Amino acid sequence: MAEKVIRVDDIDGSEGADVAKRDFEVLDRTFTIDLNDDNYKRLNEMLDALAPFIENAAEVKQAGKGRKSRTAKIKGYTNGDVRAWALREDIEVSERGKISDEVYAAFIEAHPDAKPDA
């Protein structure tokens, strides 16, 4: 049994033989949309008009989520676990802030079940 696929333009809802899945890139990300020839032409014109603005703009990094969301660099353990272990082992570690890579490495070596977070 045969099936017929009817593509519908995602912008104006039109159907037709010229409606197709169209890929386009913005800021090194690829998007796809179903467009007819006219809307695809409009999209390309808008992207061309936008290009100089993007090329001359500076990216604004999103603000961090704050200190409460700090997670350990290893799965199955928290930063608190790493700090408590380090203190028991007389390894110098700060009460707050970044835990050094050396402390993480020593913790992982002492805890074979600890898996580095990718």
Automatic annotation (TrEMBL):
Keywords: DNA-binding. GO terms for molecular function: acyltransferase activity; DNA binding. Pfam families: Lsr2, Lsr2_DNA-bd. Residues 77-110 form the Lsr2 DNA-binding domain. It comes from the Bacteria. Residues 1-60 form the Lsr2 dimerization domain. The keyword DNA-binding applies. InterPro entries: E3-bd_dom_sf (IPR036625), Lsr2-like_dimerization (IPR042261), Lsr2_dim_dom (IPR024412), Lsr2_DNA-bd (IPR055370). This is Lsr2 family protein. It comes from Actinomadura coerulea.
